[in-house]
Amino acid sequence: MTANEEALMWVEKYRPKTFNEVVGLADIVESLQAFMRNPKTMPHLMFAGVPGTGKTTLALVIAHTLYGANWRSFTLELNASDERGIDTVRDRIKDFSRYSRTGFGGDIPFALIILDECDQMTGPAQTALRRIMEIGSRTSRFILICNQSSKIIEPIQSRCAIFRFSRVDKQAMKQHLLDVAEKEGYTLVPEAADRLVDFAEGDLRHAINALQTASAYKEGVIDEKTVLLVIGEASPSQVQKMIRKALYGDFMEARKTMYDIMGSFGFSGTEIIRQVQREIFKMSDLTAEQKANLSGVIGEYDYRLTQGANSDIQLSALLAQFAKFGKDIEESYAGAN
Amino acid sequence: MTIVLNGKGFKLPRVEKEKFVNLIHLGLDYDRNAGLFSIKSYNNIEKVIDAVSDILKDDVVFLQSCIRCGKDFSCRGCNYIDLCTTKNLPFSCVCSQCLKDRKNFETYLTQF
Amino acid sequence: MQAQTDLLWVEKYRPKKIDDITGNDEAKALFLEWLKNKRHTKKAVLLYGPPGVGKTALVLSASRELGFSVIEMNASDTRSEKAINAIAKPATSYKALDNFTENAKVSGNVLFLDEVDGIAGNEDRGGVNAILKIIEASLVPIIMAANDPDIEKLRPLKKECLLIRFQQVRIPLIIALLQKICLLEHITAEFEALERIAQNSKGDVRSAINDLQSLSEENHRLSLQDTMMLTSRNKDISMDETLRRYFSTQNIAETSTMLAFSSVDYDDFLLSISDNLPKRYTDLTELAKAYDYISHADLFRGRIGTENWHLLKYFYNALAEASAVNPQSYKPFTFVTPPIRIITLFWTKGKRTMLDTICGKIGAQCHVSHKTAKHDFVPYIRAILQKKPKSPLVVWFKFTPEEVDFLTKMSRY
């Protein structure tokens, strides 16, 4: 692993720069390398999958591989959620296309445009994007990154080669964590590594960030206790705590946790509800059917949040529904016995 | 571009009588010798701002004076601006340096 | 009871001199100018503005400092023409206020009518007229004070007075005052705690001092954590009463009627109901149902916005349904005010902007969006900086000192 010595966040420092450094994703890497051998054949790409599974990393690896050290001159990185609308996106792409020079230092006939979080774009915005992609096709290739490809309109999907990224394998993640810790001069205790892997649920970014945080707590040896401390304070854990308290009927405590989250992380109502949706699926003590039912309720309140005036009221109401849900389950178990 | 004025004395371009009378009516004073307007009554301060803004054809804010160090400062950058019902109006206040400076505060207290 | 009131800081630190009054310097100046002007254009002055900002304090301290006597009358106590005349009439024959300089002791009197907006509707129609007559006949200057001068019935009065407006006292001024009291009372207080009290006070100096006393007197210390006990100011007694009737209602019709005739602020009311719903409904099925209705009420409130008032009936309907999910299960309870109001106070636009800027810096270095930075990076970076404030990450991300300060203190909302 070659480290980017300038970068101080470990997720950046140990981000793979070449295909060789990428662990796992063998099939995807193989296909992409075929394109690299003959770049003119490379179509627009779509990387879809849950967060922290290597999509941005691979897009940047492609950039490195195609353009070498000056890759920044030939690559435009955009986040659909940060830009104020499709017009800003269009303008930035237009400006970029005007100034990028292709062919300098290589014979790659196009520049690279990496557009992250495309599934956050509205339907009309995506339609406009499709046209932008068409117009730019001669001089640019797009790499579209998203969590759910189903949210991308069909005309765009049909213009891309779609690659699906799945959760990082637990063993691979554990190994990576141990490697990074060692390179940074820490000893990561295996049990601590296991806790990190469980917490991350396939999201490598969270795992590494948590590891780096733990290293700030203690010199030398990173033990299980420190890791649990870090994990406990992280927002996914807080959100899970809030959900659990609600499901187990302690509404007041659940609501208190909700206030803590809003206060100490500054998350808006919508952000918390999205996290609730994410965390529900990670919870192993719920059955698939229960998750689906809860998901429906969450969706309903997600919608209401956008229409209503007060997020804390809608969130409290959601927690109340959870509490009732939990009570009903408990009563049905009691009834069955 | 927002124009920043000092409520204790500021200049305005020449305006027709009707507008001038309105300004006086709203609570401004005019010093003929210095050619400066100043704010006498604050009862209609919001209307004063609107009128001045209209004359200068731009947004107008006023400086505050610090009751501790005496200097004039602007509301920009104040931590409490979202909660302030009198923001950008020329009332007395405490500048953020004075508020946080303990030594300054103790010197101020010795006046009592 | 003399001894007891001395223990109250609002009494102990009541302004004795005009200069002691915090804030509203401009109103002070106008008032003094009016007092000193022998040939008043107006015999009466109306001081108006929110409570606790120094209207009464100005009148009393000016009288103390300059030496004139104040005949005080609370207009909301005496509500008829007869009663006002009985007290005020004699005043009209008192000696008028002499012109005075700062040094001269003066004799003379003023009549002070506090809370003139307390003259209620129909029964006291005479009240406003009586005051008008007194103003006309009086040889003595008249000072009046009101919280809300925009009541229709006060219009005749306003024409006869010089109006002097008082504003909410600014937060830095309140903090400065609290700092002074802390020094004199030997209280060690965190700056952020005083900030919080000032922010919560809505410009009311009196309530800020009360809050300071109640939170810090016992231990002579005040931390930010202690201020979580601050409740948001429910100045309106009728809110508590309305809430009580709301929760103890017997049926939907009863609630609907009550809501139609109440004058509480819709938004405050809705929030207070939501705050207290779990205390009303301890059964989780009832709670879920009630909250569903409240959620709908909130939806309607959102749709009404500032103009679609024809939708108000749906809002009220939903509230009424929520109140009557199960009238039988009502048991009296004490109201709570969760810290959500304080949290909203903390997360101002300025703070959100700062957080967004920080996320932008993180995103630029780590190739992520602002949103991802906020969820997947900020909590960790914050923890790292709390342990190691001088971490090289600060330089790498190009965080300003304010941003570092914000990050490390973020969790101490």
Overall pLDDT level of chain A:
87
What characteristic shape of chain C results from the CA principal axes?
Answer: globular
CATH topology name of the largest domain in chain A, in short, is Rossmann fold
Instruction: List segments of chain A where confidence is low: pLDDT < 50 over at least 5 consecutive residues.
Output: none
Radius of gyration of chain C: 27 Å
The main sheet of chain A comes to: 5 strands, parallel
Label the overall shape of chain A.
globular
Span of the ends, CA to CA of chain A: 57 Å
Residues in helices of chain C, as a percent range: 40-55%
Please work out how many helical segments of chain C DSSP would assign: 20
Portion of residues in beta strands of chain C equals: 5-15%
So, the CATH homologous superfamily of the largest domain in chain A? Answer: P-loop containing nucleotide triphosphate hydrolases
Description of the molecule:
The complex is a heterotrimer of chains A (337), B (112) and C (413). With 337 residues, chain A is of the alpha/beta class. Chain A has 15 helices and seven strands. In chain A, the strands form two sheets. A five-stranded parallel sheet of chain A has the order 2-3-4-1-5, sandwiched between helices. A two-stranded parallel sheet of chain A has the order 6-7. In chain A, helix 9 packs across helix 10 and helix 11 crosses helix 15. Chain A is globular and about 70 Å long. Chain A starts with 9 loop residues before the first helix and ends with a helix. Chain B has 112 residues and is α/β, with parallel strands linked by helices. Chain B has two domains: 62 residues; 49 residues, no CATH class. Chain B has a three-stranded mixed sheet with strand order 6-5-7, with no helix packed on it. In chain B, strands 1-4 form a two-stranded parallel ribbon. In chain B, helix 1 packs antiparallel against helix 2. The termini of chain B are far apart. In chain C, strands 2-3-4-1-5 form a five-stranded parallel sheet. Chain C has a two-stranded parallel ribbon with strand order 6-7. In chain C, helix 6 links the parallel strand 3 and strand 4. In chain C, 54% of the residues lie in helices and 8% in strands. In chain C, helix 9 crosses helix 10, helix 14 packs antiparallel against helix 15 and helix 18 crosses helix 20. The two termini of chain C are 40 Å apart. The chains are: A alpha/beta (337), B alpha/beta (112), C alpha/beta (413). At the A-C interface, helix 9, helix 12, helix 14 and helix 15 of A face helix 13, helix 14, helix 16, helix 17 and helix 18 of C.
